[in-house]
Amino acid sequence: MRYFDHNATSPLSTIARQAWLDAIERFPGNPSSPHRVGARADNALNDARQAAAQWLGCSPLDLVWTSGATEANNVVFHHAAQVAEAEAWLSAIEHPSAHAAARKYFGDRVQLIPATADGVTDLNWLADRLKAHRPALVAIMAANNETGVLQPWSEALALCREHGIPFACDAAQWIGKLPAAGLGECDLVMGCAHKFGGPQGVGFMKIPDGFRPLLVGGPQEDGHRAGTENVAGIHAMTAAWAERERQLADSEQELRQSWRDQFIADLGKALPEVEVLGNPVPRLWNTVAALMPASADCRRRWVVQLDKLGFAVSTGSACASGKEKPSHVLTAMGRHPREADRMLRFSAGWETSADDWRALLDAVRSAHDALSARVS
Length: 376
Ligand code: PLP
Prior knowledge:
alpha/beta, 42% helix, Aspartate Aminotransferase, domain 1, 376 residues, three-stranded antiparallel β-sheet, Aspartate Aminotransferase, domain 2, binds pyridoxal-5'-phosphate, 12 strands, 2 domains, seven-stranded mixed β-sheet, single chain
């Protein structure tokens, strides 16, 4: 199977797998235990924390391990609602876990920051509104999971700094695909391992002073997150992350981006009706979000057809047909639900080759022929 769904989960990398196996052998104890076996596990966590802090550019003392970015998004809005009564402002294109957590903890005190037609969070809206209002928190993701469009998080951070407003950045899709440097300046940052070759069910967040934990119980993580840490998962996550930072330092993503861009160019020639979303603006080097020709009544059919041909691709979010809702990201970009229902997401990984992209193009062509024959 050729795998083009890395924005959903990037399979465990060889290095991460080895690190995980090493860790279960070397660090079998509970990091909170007072004996040497426990201390070894605790030291492994500290080493991992040190490394993550260095990549992000923050203090290791401000990092907390989590089960992933959904937990972290919940923690962010829980914390913000405890420390201030004002509104939460978050981008209309945030991950559903951020939207749901904001609604849960802020109720109707939630304002959505609009996005442009290209899928970029509207900074003008933010700058304008900040002149007259003081939200409890502004949350803008680093890169969108559906379109891959990069978001102006550092400019938003600067604006929030100017106005003394806490800024949270969901960097789940950025980390491991682009350098993490600078993200540690945000008041809160969230990430998860399984988007860059680490294991599922493990992630981290950077927390601010005066942090109010969501999970309470034991004294783990300095009282910031109760529950025994996933030592092997964390060790494997930082091993994968180290590999990605090295590849990024060597600019290895540039060649991969050129393969992706060639695919877009060839796709445009093969199927001129295809529209690549966010095409003129900077996007993750691995992602193509495309509105496909209306050769299928639901984009799920594309996924099934490509699956039969040996390609794993995604709709990016639930299908609009039947009971399912259209993508909130495409809706925020001003797309009609019928258009949104034509979206497919192809997301490559570090191991994806030029040949994989070429084969994908052929498969898309064949799928198009098969689906068109079905409809006509
Ligand atoms: N935030 C973004 C931007 C994501 O893409 C995802 C995963 O799809 C999440 C949060 C949720 O992450 P996790 O799977 O670690 O809960």
